[in-house]
Amino acid sequence: VDNSKLKYDPTQQNAISILSHHGKFISCPDNKTNKYKDKANCASKQRSNEQTFISIPIPPNDPNDKSIKVVFKTYNGKYLSSQKKDGSIECNRNDIGQWEIFTVE
Known about the structure:
By secondary structure, this protein is an all-beta fold. Helices cover 0% and strands 32% of the residues. The protein has no helices and 8 strands. The strands form 3 sheets. It has a 4-stranded antiparallel beta sheet, with no helix packed on it. A two-stranded antiparallel ribbon has the order 2-3. A hairpin with a 6-residue loop joins strand 6 (79-82) and strand 7. It starts with 13 loop residues before the first strand and ends with a strand.
């Protein structure tokens, strides 16, 4: 995949796909076909709706905070959420809370 012309600006809303180091995309399959039930996985070599996220910038609460924060909305309107207990990622949240916000570095 030639990504030389791709530009990701996390301060703007963008449609993105996230490719892992082993050449597979992060995916949030529909719960009807997802054997992992709400869990994101990294098993698809092809990109489709299930591997596409809308990256939405989140303004900081603290004016001194210069970090860039985003949420990732799935094709079916749910948000990615990082679980505190085991570090897994789920794609089943209807609302944005702390666990749905990611920092871009």
